[in-house]
Write a structure and sequence with these properties.
The protein is mainly α. It contains three helices and no strands.
């Protein structure tokens, strides 16, 4: 898997700041209530946001970009014989 930077520097700084805030809050709560597993999950999510900010790669953003690339319409090849309609016969979509 090719890991390239897909978030900007400002986005990375916000992720680091919020991730450290969430991480410190959840660890403080874990000290008071060690039997609650939800604070451990929140601490892991905060640490993941810090890591995303440091490496400037977000897997959710990468999946969204890949989905957008797959959903782009393919250009019509004229004259290949597979399509019976001409390019002028295609009407734009009007939802009203």
């Amino acid at each position: 898997m090719n890991v390239t930077k897909n978030i900007g520097i400002l986005n990375a700084l916000v992720r680091i700041t919020l991730g450290l805030t969430i991480l410190s809050w959840s660890t403080a709560k874990m000290v008071k209530f060690p039997w609650r597993d939800s604070y451990l999950f929140i601490a892991i999510c905060g640490a993941m946001k810090v890591a995303e900010g440091i490496v400037r790669f977000c897997p959710v953003t990468a999946l969204f970009e890949r989905y957008q690339e797959m959903e782009q319409p393919k250009p019509l090849a004229l004259g290949d014989g597979s399509n019976d309609m001409d390019a002028e016969e295609v009407l734009p979509y009007n939802p009203s």
